[in-house]
Specification:
This protein is an alpha/beta fold. The chain has 8 helices and 14 strands. A 6-stranded mixed sheet has the order 8-9-10-5-11-12, sandwiched between helices. A hairpin with a 2-residue loop joins strand 13 and strand 14. It starts with a strand and ends with a strand.
Length: 302
């Protein structure tokens, strides 16, 4: 719990909460400065950690909910409807894969859930917070502390070492240098790169770069990891290792993983698979209802 007090001397509002409060409900004073201080200094860092690990929201079964989600793009005189009223509930601790052909709308849906884009209409809730109602500060706060991102092309900063790449998001969360270094080393050890702390991306293989990206996604203990084609640029064996790593994190830490993918191997570790077509949910399959056939190529199972 964090104690948030209104800075207005004429207002006595204060509340203990694990939520995000940016405006005083009594006098309408802007509380964003108070929230910033909680994430930057002294005991505030511990209070900010309480905000990240929001025990109050664990009573909600669904960590992500979308209702009537639509997204339209105007191209000249034409309107392209990327999403057409998507309704989707994602359970806390679930491993969900989103699959569909190119142009189906899965990347657009992915961006909505990640707070990277706003819908034309409809709502997207993250832990019961309507993303569309957040201002720029609140959205940045939520993205920094609640969501971790893994990209197909890794998106590592080439002039920074593995440790520096992993600790970069921690700077924005207000951690001090000692905390960042300790947590960065721990995360790199977790993904099997404890001996590569000071290697730059160009000195690492594709699989190692993606492992660095996984560690970076875990930097601020997110509730959700969004993985956009995490195996798309990897060979079959390395891709399998990344999939197994993500599943291990899902099982051991309880983090919710949402993956947009074409990789059929991802199905085997998923709790559910959402099929997107023409901007809508075509069907949702449970893992136990999906029949997979394993083939052998070059002496390896695929």
């Amino acid at each position: 719990m964090a104690l948030i007090k209104c800075p207005n001397p004429n207002c006595d509002y204060e509340v203990e909460t694990t939520g995000l409060v940016t405006v005083c409900p009594k006098c309408k004073t802007d509380l964003r400065g108070v929230m910033e201080e909680l994430s930057k200094i002294g005991d505030g860092r511990r209070k900010a950690a309480d905000l990240v690990h929001d025990d109050s929201v664990t009573t909600h079964e669904y960590i992500v909910r979308t209702k009537g989600l639509t997204k339209e793009y105007r191209m000249g005189d034409n309107i392209v409807r990327a999403l057409r009223g998507v309704d989707l509930d994602i359970r806390r601790g679930e491993y969900l894969s989103i699959m569909g052909p190119s142009g189906s709308g899965k990347s657009t849906l992915f961006n909505m859930v990640g707070g990277l884009d706003k819908p034309t209409s409809g709502t997207c809730f993250i832990e019961e917070v309507d993303m569309a109602q957040l201002d720029a500060f609140e959205l940045a706060w939520l993205r920094c502390r609640k969501i971790g991102y893994i990209f197909q092309t890794f998106n590592l900063i080439p002039v920074m070492t593995a440790l520096e790449n992993v600790t970069l998001p921690m700077i924005f969360a207000g951690m001090n240098s000692d905390e960042m270094m300790e947590r960065g080393r721990t995360l790199l050890e977790l993904v099997g790169l404890g001996e590569r702390l000071h290697h730059k991306p160009s000195e690492c293989s594709g699989g190692q770069q993606q492992r660095i990206a996984v560690a970076r996604a875990l930097a601020n203990s997110p509730a959700i990891i969004l993985a956009d084609e995490p195996t798309g640029n990897l060979d079959l064996q390395t891709g399998k290792e990344i999939i197994e790593l993500l599943k291990e994190l899902n099982v051991e830490s309880g983090v919710t993983i949402i993956s947009a993918t074409h990789d059929l191997k991802m199905i085997d570790v998923s709790d559910r698979v959402v099929h997107i077509r023409d901007g809508g949910v075509e069907r949702v399959d449970k893992r136990e209802d999906i029949q997979l056939e394993i083939g052998v190529m070059g002496g390896q199972e695929h």
